[in-house]
Amino acid sequence: MSDAQLAVLLGRNIRAERYRLGLSQEQLAEVSGLHRTYIGVIERGEKNITICNCKKIAHALNLTLWELIRMCEDFRKPASA
Amino acid sequence: MSDAQLAVLLGRNIRAERYRLGLSQEQLAEVSGLHRTYIGVIERGEKNITICNCKKIAHALNLTLWELIRMCEDFRKPASA
After folding, report:
1. Per the database record, which ranges form the HTH cro/C1-type domain (chains A, B) (predicted)?
2. Are A57 and A42 in contact (CB under 8 A)?
3. Of A57, A69, B10, B18, which is most buried, counting CB atoms within 10 Å of its CB?
Protein backbone atom coordinates (compact mmCIF):
# COMPACT_ATOMS: atom_id res chain seq x y z
CA MET A 1 0.00 0.00 0.00
CA SER A 2 1.46 3.35 -1.08
CA ASP A 3 1.71 6.33 1.26
CA ALA A 4 -1.03 8.11 -0.71
CA GLN A 5 -3.36 5.08 -0.49
CA LEU A 6 -2.81 4.86 3.27
CA ALA A 7 -3.61 8.57 3.70
CA VAL A 8 -6.81 8.22 1.62
CA LEU A 9 -7.95 5.03 3.42
CA LEU A 10 -7.23 6.58 6.80
CA GLY A 11 -9.29 9.63 5.86
CA ARG A 12 -12.21 7.48 4.67
CA ASN A 13 -12.15 5.38 7.85
CA ILE A 14 -12.05 8.48 10.07
CA ARG A 15 -15.01 9.94 8.17
CA ALA A 16 -16.92 6.60 8.33
CA GLU A 17 -16.38 6.32 12.10
CA ARG A 18 -17.33 9.98 12.58
CA TYR A 19 -20.58 9.32 10.68
CA ARG A 20 -21.13 6.18 12.77
CA LEU A 21 -21.00 8.32 15.90
CA GLY A 22 -23.14 11.07 14.37
CA LEU A 23 -20.42 13.68 14.91
CA SER A 24 -19.79 16.76 12.78
CA GLN A 25 -16.22 17.73 11.85
CA GLU A 26 -16.50 20.56 14.40
CA GLN A 27 -17.44 18.10 17.16
CA LEU A 28 -14.63 15.67 16.23
CA ALA A 29 -12.20 18.61 16.16
CA GLU A 30 -13.33 19.74 19.60
CA VAL A 31 -13.11 16.28 21.20
CA SER A 32 -9.71 15.52 19.60
CA GLY A 33 -8.26 18.98 20.36
CA LEU A 34 -7.40 19.54 16.70
CA HIS A 35 -8.58 22.25 14.26
CA ARG A 36 -11.69 21.64 12.13
CA THR A 37 -9.90 22.44 8.88
CA TYR A 38 -7.19 19.94 9.83
CA ILE A 39 -9.87 17.26 10.28
CA GLY A 40 -11.15 18.06 6.78
CA VAL A 41 -7.67 17.84 5.26
CA ILE A 42 -7.08 14.46 6.94
CA GLU A 43 -10.50 13.08 5.92
CA ARG A 44 -9.71 13.99 2.28
CA GLY A 45 -6.41 12.08 2.56
CA GLU A 46 -4.40 15.18 1.68
CA LYS A 47 -1.85 14.99 4.51
CA ASN A 48 0.55 12.50 6.02
CA ILE A 49 -0.68 12.63 9.61
CA THR A 50 1.59 12.04 12.60
CA ILE A 51 1.12 9.09 14.98
CA CYS A 52 0.23 11.45 17.87
CA ASN A 53 -2.44 13.37 15.96
CA CYS A 54 -3.84 10.10 14.64
CA LYS A 55 -4.03 8.83 18.22
CA LYS A 56 -6.00 11.95 19.23
CA ILE A 57 -8.52 11.35 16.43
CA ALA A 58 -8.76 7.60 17.16
CA HIS A 59 -9.45 8.23 20.84
CA ALA A 60 -12.04 10.90 19.97
CA LEU A 61 -13.75 8.16 17.89
CA ASN A 62 -13.62 5.71 20.86
CA LEU A 63 -11.00 3.60 19.10
CA THR A 64 -7.43 2.69 19.96
CA LEU A 65 -4.89 3.91 17.42
CA TRP A 66 -4.10 0.37 16.29
CA GLU A 67 -7.84 -0.38 15.73
CA LEU A 68 -8.19 2.63 13.44
CA ILE A 69 -5.06 1.72 11.50
CA ARG A 70 -6.08 -1.92 11.24
CA MET A 71 -9.24 -0.84 9.41
CA CYS A 72 -7.00 0.65 6.74
CA GLU A 73 -4.53 -2.22 6.50
CA ASP A 74 -7.31 -4.86 6.40
CA PHE A 75 -9.19 -2.93 3.69
CA ARG A 76 -10.22 -5.13 0.75
CA LYS A 77 -11.54 -3.45 -2.37
CA PRO A 78 -15.27 -4.03 -2.95
CA ALA A 79 -16.00 -6.60 -5.65
CA SER A 80 -16.36 -4.64 -8.89
CA ALA A 81 -19.99 -4.58 -10.07
CA MET B 1 -0.88 7.88 27.14
CA SER B 2 0.79 11.19 26.37
CA ASP B 3 2.32 11.99 22.99
CA ALA B 4 5.80 11.82 24.53
CA GLN B 5 5.09 8.38 26.08
CA LEU B 6 3.82 7.07 22.75
CA ALA B 7 6.96 8.31 20.96
CA VAL B 8 9.23 6.68 23.58
CA LEU B 9 7.30 3.36 23.56
CA LEU B 10 7.27 3.29 19.77
CA GLY B 11 11.03 3.84 19.73
CA ARG B 12 11.62 1.08 22.26
CA ASN B 13 9.42 -1.37 20.35
CA ILE B 14 11.16 -0.57 17.06
CA ARG B 15 14.55 -1.13 18.70
CA ALA B 16 13.35 -4.37 20.34
CA GLU B 17 12.03 -5.74 17.04
CA ARG B 18 15.23 -4.65 15.25
CA TYR B 19 17.26 -6.57 17.85
CA ARG B 20 14.93 -9.56 17.44
CA LEU B 21 15.78 -9.64 13.75
CA GLY B 22 19.48 -9.03 14.38
CA LEU B 23 19.48 -5.89 12.25
CA SER B 24 21.74 -2.86 12.69
CA GLN B 25 20.27 0.66 12.41
CA GLU B 26 22.02 0.92 9.02
CA GLN B 27 20.30 -2.27 7.79
CA LEU B 28 16.87 -1.15 9.06
CA ALA B 29 17.42 2.23 7.41
CA GLU B 30 18.30 0.56 4.11
CA VAL B 31 15.32 -1.82 4.13
CA SER B 32 12.86 0.91 5.17
CA GLY B 33 14.26 3.50 2.76
CA LEU B 34 14.82 6.00 5.57
CA HIS B 35 18.06 7.62 6.82
CA ARG B 36 20.07 5.94 9.58
CA THR B 37 20.13 9.06 11.76
CA TYR B 38 16.33 9.27 11.44
CA ILE B 39 16.06 5.68 12.72
CA GLY B 40 18.20 6.68 15.72
CA VAL B 41 16.04 9.73 16.46
CA ILE B 42 12.86 7.61 16.29
CA GLU B 43 14.31 4.81 18.47
CA ARG B 44 15.18 7.42 21.12
CA GLY B 45 11.57 8.67 21.03
CA GLU B 46 12.68 12.17 20.09
CA LYS B 47 10.31 12.73 17.16
CA ASN B 48 6.60 12.48 16.40
CA ILE B 49 6.81 10.14 13.42
CA THR B 50 4.27 10.22 10.57
CA ILE B 51 1.98 7.26 9.81
CA CYS B 52 3.69 6.66 6.45
CA ASN B 53 7.23 6.57 7.85
CA CYS B 54 6.04 4.36 10.68
CA LYS B 55 4.54 2.00 8.08
CA LYS B 56 7.89 1.82 6.27
CA ILE B 57 9.67 0.87 9.50
CA ALA B 58 6.97 -1.65 10.49
CA HIS B 59 7.13 -3.38 7.11
CA ALA B 60 10.95 -3.45 7.27
CA LEU B 61 10.50 -5.29 10.59
CA ASN B 62 8.03 -7.76 8.99
CA LEU B 63 5.13 -6.25 10.91
CA THR B 64 1.96 -4.52 9.82
CA LEU B 65 1.67 -0.94 11.05
CA TRP B 66 -1.19 -1.80 13.38
CA GLU B 67 0.83 -4.68 14.95
CA LEU B 68 3.71 -2.34 15.76
CA ILE B 69 1.37 0.27 17.24
CA ARG B 70 -0.57 -2.34 19.21
CA MET B 71 2.68 -3.28 21.00
CA CYS B 72 2.81 0.29 22.28
CA GLU B 73 -0.85 0.62 23.23
CA ASP B 74 -0.93 -2.78 24.99
CA PHE B 75 2.26 -1.96 26.93
CA ARG B 76 1.97 -2.68 30.71
CA LYS B 77 4.68 -1.42 33.04
CA PRO B 78 6.82 -4.20 34.52
CA ALA B 79 5.97 -4.98 38.15
CA SER B 80 8.32 -2.82 40.24
CA ALA B 81 10.97 -4.95 42.00
Report:
1. 14-68
2. yes
3. A69
